[in-house]
Write a structure and sequence with these properties.
By secondary structure, the protein is an alpha/beta fold. It contains twelve helices and 24 strands. Helix content is 29%, strand content 22%. The structure holds shikimate-3-phosphate (S3P) and phosphoenolpyruvate.
Length: 440
């Protein structure tokens, strides 16, 4: 999408923060609950759903396949009525990993071809393991060269067409999910509808984002599906009905990240209500991470409070379980007093943009020092100055820049509207964080 507006001047905090931030629903939970509801044997009522571009794209994809979805309460309540999945259909995946990876196995259950495409940035995000997994299950997938439209054998990227026949036999499949946990989640989510279910083996060296795989398994079990995950890197999903009913979506803890990080960046306290006591969201790791970076945290009556003193400690952390937190942790590392190391996140080169390259380029543009390693980043904190930070259509690059901008004069964020991917109200929420005048 073109960038038409002027860069957004990130507000600078002039005094310690004292804010409570209500964070909207989880992208990952919303975009699992919707497809499971479409595959269910009865309607599902979802409350607390995220209203954002990624959720809209998932709703659009499932509607294109025939699912009934009614929205209420500004879109935060969704009533999903499953129907026979049908093709032909066209699906716009935008830049949503959850849509481009989760929809193909669902499209395999449709009774006709389903063509998927997305933003230019989506066409370079890896999908091969999901597509090869489907091919191994007997579901043909054809690709097309985006420039010429010529057919591509063995497609690994959008655009592509899944040729469903209305049924998938299922069985046993091996994939390499070292590039994204979403390859595993995608196949597991649709598997109860495969006639023989699915036994899935991961054969790669690393498996990122284990909490997101646990989230998929928990979502399936909550809907009555039998899943065996006792052996590492192996999952068995039994065929069977997926129940509907009422589902309440937790707040998006990863989206809480930049707001909580703000307390460390400039001092003061930021509180996030409705913090779940137990969750599969990787954002659950935030309190521990922020403590290592110098914050004190407390969870009382469901409110997480993070307090900082404006001094940020460097860290050496393995973020393989929570790669989507890397831009937020990188912002704090860039403000820290010393050298930080972020490990275990080679796979975020395949996120909305190559996040390792983007973070290095933008930290350097801000006057800081950063370099890529094989599986992460080395960031030497301090020495920052204002700059126009590029965001590469990546919501988390925009929030990375906003966190830095709280503490550094003259930071402007190019295409801050990219935050609409998961947080359309980001700039208003950020102004509220700073107090009534928008400046703390
Ligand atoms: O399944 C999900 O909802 C997600 C899984 C993770 O993907 P990767 O394993 O590709 O990092 C995460 O980063 C992404 O934001 C959401
Ligand atoms: C990696 C992310 O998104 P996606 O669901 O598009 O993979 C993210 O939100 O950080």
């Amino acid at each position: 999408m073109p960038t038409l507006t002027a860069p957004w001047p990130a507000p600078v905090a002039t005094r310690p923060l004292d804010a409570t931030v209500l964070v909207p629903g989880s992208k990952s939970l919303t975009n699992r609950t919707l497809p499971l509801a479409a595959l269910a044997v009865e309607p599902t009522r979802i409350t607390g759903a995220l209203v954002s571009r990624d959720a809209d794209l998932m709703i659009g994809a499932l509607r294109a396949l025939g699912t009934g979805i009614e929205a209420y309460d500004g879109g935060t309540t969704l009533v999903v009525t499953p129907a026979v999945l049908r093709g032909p259909a066209e699906v716009d995946c935008g830049l949503a990993g959850t849509v481009m990876r989760f929809i193909p196995p669902i499209a395999a259950l449709a009774d006709g071809p389903v063509r998927l495409d997305g933003d230019a940035g989506a066409r370079v995000r890896p999908m091969g393991p999901v597509l090869r997994g489907l091919a191994a299950l007997g579901v043909p997938v054809t690709g097309a060269d985006p420039a010429t439209g010529e057919p591509v054998d063995d497609p690994s990227f959008l655009p592509l067409t899944v040729h469903g026949t209305g049924r998938v036999l299922g069985g046993e499949v091996e994939i390499d999910a070292s590039g994204s946990s979403q390859f595993v989640s995608a196949l597991l989510l649709a598997a109860p509808r495969f006639e023989a279910g699915l036994t899935l083996h991961h054969v790669g060296e690393v498996l990122p984002s284990q909490p997101h795989i646990d989230m998929t398994i928990a979502a399936l079990r909550e809907r009555g599906v039998n899943v065996d995950d006792a052996a590492p890197g192996k999952w068995r999903v039994e065929p069977g009905p997926i129940s509907g009913g009422d589902v309440v979506i937790e707040p998006d803890l990863s989206n809480a990240g930049p707001f909580l990080a703000a307390a460390l960046a400039v001092g003061g306290t930021v509180r996030v209500p409705n913090w779940p006591t137990a969750t599969t969201q990787p954002g659950a790791l935030l309190p521990g991470l922020l403590e290592r970076l110098g914050a004190t945290t407390a969870l009382a009556d469901g409110v997480l409070s993070v307090t900082g003193t404006h001094a940020v400690r460097p860290v050496d952390v393995d973020l393989s379980a929570a790669g989507e937190l890397a831009p937020t942790i990188a912002a704090l590392a860039a403000l820290a007093d010393g050298e930080s190391r972020l490990r275990g996140i080679a796979h975020i080169r395949g996120h909305e943009t190559d996040r390792l390259a983007a973070l290095v380029t933008e930290i350097r543009r801000l006057g800081g020092s950063a370099e890529e390693t094989e599986d992460g980043l080395i960031i030497r904190g301090g020495g920052l100055h204002g700059a126009d930070v590029e965001t590469y259509h990546d919501h988390r690059m925009a929030t990375f820049a906003a966190v830095v901008g709280l503490a550094v004069e003259g930071v402007r964020v190019v295409n801050v509207a990219t935050t609409a991917k998961t947080l359309p109200d980001f700039t208003a929420m950020w102004a509220d964080l700073l107090g009534p005048s928008g400046r703390a």
